[in-house]
Write a structure and sequence with these properties.
globular; Rhopdopsin 7-helix transmembrane proteins; disordered C terminus
Length: 311
């Protein structure tokens, strides 16, 4: 196979990828510790515990993905030419497959955490007839996650084709994460699930903002989370367009663009973790400045349900 030039603009070096992934893994851990330390002082219920568990799971999975990709980067530093021509060893191919699969699972966990987070915000404040959006979003999230996971795990049979590779009519068919059909399908499913989850805050925005106690903190929290979600959808669409536009006739990318994709994928998870953590910091700020913006704090003090007990 001929050497693939690093086209498409400047790309991060292996050392930069290692630094970015290591630093963001530390920051994500700090975000979770901060969020947990804040929420453990508040009344706990099933939703808050489940949300924390899903966030912790997403961080662990993303760390596993980072460790795998960092190892790949150290191998590239040792033998850069082998990577430029995609002459990858079986161990490297296994690591790349594990990296992508763990990244997919990490996104699935954090999306589940957002659904639980929205459900907790709406508890006691959204009429039961308006909760159908949450149920529809959950159904779409579960179905798209399982379809994407099954494609990643079962598209290439036998399974070892995922790290040994196979071609058909001179085009790469396996591993599954590099298959054009699998990539397009999982990317589109990812965007669909994002749109479904982001539809939930619209119900919260139109309902929760009617209450005086909800106008400050929840407005900022929902708008911030919504903005990050929109950016995530845009990033997914741009990444899909860039990758599809740079595939060669064999179905491979310039390796430099692969490093860029690794960084963008990791940043996507980090931004999601950050977005679900910062509203918790807002709770502390609201209490510190004496603002009466957060119905969770008010409920903890008065014993009243969220949203003033509206149903």
């Amino acid at each position: 196979m001929s050497q693939l030039p690093e086209t498409g603009g400047p790309h991060p070096s292996p050392q930069q990828v290692i630094a970015i992934k290591g630093l963001s893994a530390i920051l994500m851990s700090m975000c979770f510790v901060l969020r947990y330390s804040i929420h453990r002082k508040l009344p706990q219920n099933f939703n808050t515990r489940l949300c924390n568990l899903l966030i912790a799971g997403a961080i662990v999975l993303d760390m596993g993905s980072s460790v795998s990709s960092i190892w790949v980067m150290t191998e590239e530093i040792k033998e850069p030419y082998r990577f430029q021509v995609w002459g990858l060893t079986e161990k490297v191919r296994k690591a790349l497959y594990a990296t992508h699969t763990l990244y997919f699972l990490s996104l699935a966990f954090i999306k589940g955490a957002y659904l639980v987070y929205f459900a907790e915000l709406a508890r006691g404040a959204v009429h039961s007839r308006k909760r159908y959006l949450s149920h529809i979003a959950a159904a779409i999230y579960i179905s798209t996650t399982f379809v994407g996971l099954f494609m990643l795990l079962l598209w290439c049979r036998p399974f070892y084709h995922n790290y040994r590779g196979i071609t058909f009519k001179n085009y790469l068919q396996c591993p599954s994460q590099y298959n054009r059909t699998v990539f397009i399908t999982t990317s589109v499913l990812n965007i669909i699930s994002d749109l479904a989850i982001l539809a939930v805050p619209f119900t919260l925005i139109t309902t929760l903002f009617r209450f005086e106690s909800s106008r400050c903190f929840k407005r900022a929290a929902l708008l911030f989370v919504f903005a990050v979600g929109v950016l995530s959808i845009v990033a997914t669409a741009v990444r899909m367009a860039v990758i599809l536009g740079n595939l060669d006739s064999f179905g491979l990318l310039p390796w430099g663009l692969m490093r860029t994709a690794m960084v963008l994928s990791h940043v996507e998870v980090f931004a999601a973790i950050l977005a679900i953590t910062l509203p918790s910091v807002g709770k502390v700020v609201a209490v510190a400045v004496g603002a009466r913006c957060d119905p969770w704090i008010a409920a903890a003090k008065t014993g009243a349900p969220l949203g003033g007990g509206a149903s």
